[in-house]
Amino acid sequence: MQISNEELVGEWQRLCAAYPLAAAQALRQLAERQSAELARYFYAQMLADPQSALFLNHEQVKTRLSQSMQRWVCNVFRAPDAAGFVEVVEQQRKVGEIHARIEIPVSLVLRGARALKQRLRELLEEHGLEEPLRRQAARLGADVIDLAIEIMCFAFSQSHDRNSRAEEAYRLFSVSQNVGVEKERQRAALLDWENQLMFDLAVGNTAVGLPQLAGSEFGLWFRHKASHAFQGSPESASILDYIAGIDRALLQLRGGCETSGEGSLDLLHQIREQTRAIRFLLDSLFEQASDLEAGRDVLTRLLNRKFLPVVLGKEVLYSRQSGSCFGVLAIDVDHFKQVNDRHGHDGGDQVLQQIATLLASNSRGGDYAFRLGGEEFLMVLVDIDASKALQIAEKLRKRIASETLRLQKGGELRVTVSIGMAVHDGHPDYERLLKRADQALYQAKREGRNRCVVHGGD
Question: Structurally, what CATH architecture does the domain formed by 305-454 represent?
């Protein structure tokens, strides 16, 4: 069901018109004078709820939300003109969409609204208004808050439904474009890790550190992609348990625990049995997978925008739960219009296909590559810090700049890319991370292109 902004604006206008102008003016004056107190009380009540800690514990959220809340209080309680009603309705929609994006429970929002109405009534009692006017202002304030929350919840529901549909599609899709190819790729990655481990054990290379399965190509792919695609299946849970168990054993060995030759053989035998079990479970999971095309860019075969909210939301949640970090690279082909002008759109498409191949082939198993449209690409780098992410960005930039691209009609050319990088800092809204990467990209272009720029933070 769709409710237009015009309908909501009309409802807000009728609500305000049902009360005396004096009540609306008293409410507006109180809001302007007491916005700081209302914001303080609102967040004091919210932070007292353990459920809110997941969403309000980021330092920038704490410092910025108070000011945002004060503006919200003044906006919803003022007596706007026709244009102002449109603005205030649109504001509630935007807030609801943000709540959906960072998955704030509706129950938490409703609890905050109840606290806000309570404090508003208390402040009106202290304001010294005559009894009839005070009651009218209090009812108007409660009705305005209820309507604002209703619009937020409606926007939340719409956005959440879209995200849920995309989430379900992504779970079926995310494993691979081609299940057979991905199956063999991941079996090979698991075998490579096992061979490296056996070599290190054979030569006694335990002091430097044995290769952890969770951080291997296979481990990154399974933890960030496959486990999400097969969420809820017993096979997926078992594989995650095997990975954790193997790494605990390797960590203990690396920690300097004395292990006899026979003990090392026992460990090797145990790990080989567990990796064999992982391969068996992996085969079973791939038998359940479907090869879906929705969500993949037709030209480049990279992911498209459809699954970007799902991937980023999942990585924000994973980062919050595990304490790990991830980064975003906003990538743009330099002077791409000149490529189209000189070689036609077919030539431009061939360039984009080859760049997409370079991005996919120079990323790790758990990373994501998207084509956002035109010559714009985006990469999500998982389990990584800022220094390592910048190294990968520079490697990609240099790799693309050094590659000779070939056109079907003959001819060769080289192109460069500009890259803007931002690293997740704990903020719950991934849109902020995307904006920071875009800002860094624009800076890279302003500074001459063919370069990587890291967002400097706020």
Answer: 2-Layer Sandwich (3.30)
